[in-house]
Amino acid sequence: MRKAFFKALVKLNNLVMPSLYKKDPMTLSTFQKGILGFRYWALTNSTK
């Protein structure tokens, strides 16, 4: 159940949230770092 929730959350993230993989993490704003962290958190929980 938990894994299915996070897999759905990752798919939603890919559709809705901006992609930041081409940007340097040191130049991101605080809000963009939060988005990046949330996407990473959701991705790691979907693979457990």
Write the layout of secondary structure elements.
Elements: H1 2-16, H2 30-47
Helix pairs in contact: 1-2
Residue fraction in strands: under 5%
Q: Treating each run of at least 4 consecutive H or I residues as one helix, how many helices?
A: 2
Strand-pairing-aware structural class: mainly alpha
- Gross morphology is elongated
Q: What is the alpha-carbon Rg in Å?
A: 11 Å
Biggest sheet architecture? none
Plain-language structure description:
This protein is mainly alpha-helical and 48 residues long. It has one domain. It is built from 2 helices and no strands. The mean pLDDT is 91. This is SsrA-binding protein.
Key words describing this protein structure:
48 residues; mainly alpha
What does this entry show, briefly?
With 48 residues, the chain is mainly α. It is built from 2 helices and no strands.
